[in-house]
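re: that complex we talked abt at group meeting.

here r the seqs, copy pasted straight from the sheet so there may be weird spacing, ignore it
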Amino acid sequence: MGKLCLLLLLAAGQAQSATAQRIVSFLPSDTEILYALGAGPLAGVSRFCDYPPETAAVPKIGDLLRPNIEKITQLRPDLVLVGKWNSSDAGKRLARLGLNVVSVPEAAGIEDLLGNITLIGEAVGRPRQAAQLRQALKRELESLKLASPAARPRVYVEVDAPHWTAGGLSYLSDLIEQAGGRNIFAGERKAYFNVSWESVVSKNPDAIIVLSRSGSDFSNRRMAGEIKAVKTGRIFIPPDKDIYLRPSPRITRAVRELQRFLHEK
Amino acid sequence: MNSSKTPLLEAHGLCFSYNGHNAVDKVSLTLTAGQFLGIAGPNGSGKSTLLRLLAGRLKPGKGRVLLRGRELNLVPAHSRAAEIAVLPPEPESTYGFSVLETVLMGKMLALPWWRDADGKALQSAEEALELVGLESVARRALTSLSSGERQRVFLAQALCGGPKVLLLDEPTSHLDLRHWLETMLLLKKLADKGLAVAAVLHDINSVAEYCSHALLLKDGRTSASGTTRQALTPETLRSVYGIEARQNGSGWRFALSDASPH
Amino acid sequence: MKNSSRYALLLLGLLAAAIAGVFSGAVQNPDLEMLLRLRLPRTLLAALAGAALGCCGSVMQAVLRNPLADPYIMGTSAGAGLGAVCALALGLQTHGPGFYALAFAGAFCATAFAYFMARAGGKTSAATLVLSGVMVSSFCGALILFFMIARQKESLPALLFIMGSVNEGSPSQLLGSAALFLGGAAALLPLSRRLDAISFGEEKAFYLGVNTERLKLRAMLGAALLACAAVGAAGTVGFIGLAVPHLMRALFGPNNRRLLFVSALCGAGALMAVDAAARTLLAPAEIPAGLLCALCGAPFFLYLLKRSKNEFF
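got the structure back, here u go
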């Protein structure tokens, strides 16, 4: 009888911290968080997931627009993490097939990122690691904030095609603020949008971050020479663009890199 | 009517076939100034094809067409258009050009594109419209006219350029009795004034009454040709149409024969 | 309404559009330098693109005898879009010289391909030209969509190009578009009377002395130049090339020499006005001009159609 009770307790204990073993992740940001929580190796990732390097060996299951449903079901995952992207119904389709699907909301800022870490931690049964990761990130971000000088340079960030920038509701804008800069379009109640070039010129930013492909031709644009950032040559083309656009634990790297650029003399 | 005049348009042994079918087979004719030639025959006898060959729209498989002694396909387009005016059976009218603009086109294509219609051109256009009796609708859009009126506008367009040869394909198909009469009289008058006129007509009595010469086609071949009196006889009509024909004054009366047509 | 007062109205509209173009935008009180160096070139570029579209549309409608023809009916815009996505796939810079070279090449190749596909025995008919163009457009369009799905990261620049938005008007863009526009116009104006003649059908045009095959080829060439002038300036903006000729034909008649001229004026005014609105309505954000064109233009055109009781041409 005692042995039976012990067995039952053990089983219950297992169920409590049911660490999901076979996880499929659709979003590169979620993938990074999962590995940071130690939930790797994953069973399947999307074709856009490229960090950490271990993901290279993981089977690719398509993406949210065209998920490879067959392959996913073949992998028999305990958990599938999807995000809201282009109103894709991949999550619904997988849930209908009986899979355990958790939808991770879009992170519009750093607070959301931390919230997602907690959410994902709970979904994979690693709440302790999630809390630890949160603490670590928060501490590092705080210290970076203290290290940044009082003067906040005004920043224009170009995300994609010419004049595609980040508004106040975007993750990128929050990141810029965190690094001690001020996004000139932070006042816009939009995430990412197509901005008028003359607005950029008239706002005369002190620094420019270029994440789009028009890096080298930036100074050739009309009246670009009038912009303070161009005149003083403060144009930053990050080597790794993903860490700026992906809400992931690598945020501290992005903030540090950005801070260095914004406040160098 | 004087056959010793130099021919304006000649056809020698024209042959044309498509899809293995001989539409026109060894047809020859001569058209001189002052002649009004009526081309007639059953459906599918090659009348329209022959007209197109004479107009230069189709290239004959064998034989040739001569315009005033020159090979027609060697004559440049603008010269050809200046000398030969053609009225096809159903010209399109997609856009609402005015009647006057349409008629003027008969003359304007010869002018450079920046030049506007001068007094002479306008005069020719107005005269042409008067000939067909449509001077009152000069400002109206072509698309607002009836099909008969449109047909007469295109006739005016053909005349506006002052051609020497006039080729018409079924010019009276949409016309009411009055305008049919007027048109036939007009064509005869034009021939008398010195034009060479050839028209595909489906009505034998028209041919008999107004044409000076006639050409009867059957299965693409010349069945009868010459002056109207020579070409239109009960025998030729029977062989071409398979009907009994009897001359009644200046017109013809027809009846189905007992022997069924081919 | 007399013709002279219609001309006056048109010129007034053009002037108003130009003023709107230069004096409206995201920035509330621009200084003179911004007006001259940003607003003016862009407005000029919009005028060039709009004029090219208006002309090109009227030529296509004339030569194909089809009131539904537009500058892109022979596959020109789909070809340009395909060229653009190829450039993006190759990693070329958006709106750089290589990008435009490929877009123009795509436009020309698609048009030429559609033309030669429709040719049989040295002849083309208006109906087969249209069919051929529609097929080429569909095919190119499918390829573009395929690219967008396969390379989702680069799809945004492609999408903006295809929707059509006026560029900033760098000197090279202005010169290039102006040269293409003037080249196209120079090629097409001498054909204007023959284009009138071809409206009566190929056969009647032939009898009037027009070499219809040569006319079609030259008209397509001129139209392709104009289309490239527009695409180089503003991407593939739709609707203007279709609607402006109709409107102008209703006001000024179908005479092609006059129509080419007024379509250019009206197209220029239309795109300048739309671009001004595109820059101002959601400032500082900018709506792609092509999108706004279709959104506003289509209902307006339908309204006109209803009012005229279908007696539009």
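couple things i noticed - Chain C is about 75% helix and 0% strand. Residues 36 and 132 of chain C are 44 Å apart (CA to CA).
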